[in-house]
Amino acid sequence: MVVLGIESSSPIASVALVSGHKLWGEMTLNIGLTHSEQLLPLIDDLLQQTKVTLADLEGIAVSGGPGSFTGLRIGMATAKGLAQGLKIPLVSVSTLLALAYQQAGCCCLVSSLMNARKNEVYAALFRFTAAGYEQLEPEQALSPHLWAQKLAAYQKAIVLTGDGGADYKEIWQETLGKKAVFPPAFTQLARGASVAWLGQQKLGQGEQDDLFTLKPMYIRSSEAERRLRGVGNR
Prior knowledge:
By secondary structure, the chain is an alpha/beta fold. About 35% of the residues lie in helices and about 30% in strands. It is built from 8 helices and 10 strands. Strands 3-2-1-4-5 form a 5-stranded mixed sheet, with helices on both faces. A 5-stranded mixed sheet has the order 8-7-6-9-10. Helix 4 (about 145-150) packs parallel to helix 6. It is globular. The termini are far apart.
């Protein structure tokens, strides 16, 4: 099964092609352009370089959030358009799971963290084993201090990955001490390959999302929605 993975939940745009145990190719950019400018050209370049055609695609996996509201909408709209046009299945993959998946070979618990602004992080906690993974804490938005307290209760070494790990490093070190493990920076980037691998697993199990009801997992309301509610409450 040839699966296209699309990651656009952060300023990084990343697309990848996988089939079975093979990564055919991956392209990642973090150069400040909007995803509306980057995604389709990246996909086109990836297909040309790998000599894979749109007709060869058998499934699409897209990062479903949490993350940038605009980035998620653009990524999901792109994935939906391709899936509908090609008449192939589409699956959404948790952004935090895709981040954590890059640390799957370690023997520690893995906490994926994204800076959610407003002194909060998007966070989740996973345990990876040879048989797969177990999600210990669901995706949520909360203060770094509160998340650090939750992690400390496990009393185990925990890998902290994602930009939220680096941005609030002092808090993790203060609360977790030596149990806070920070992987190399290049393994903490949002990647289309992780989304594609996880999406391939879901598709292989017969899962797929409804193109017309699928929405990004925002977790919290956008700034525009909060302002609108504030006006309505006056």
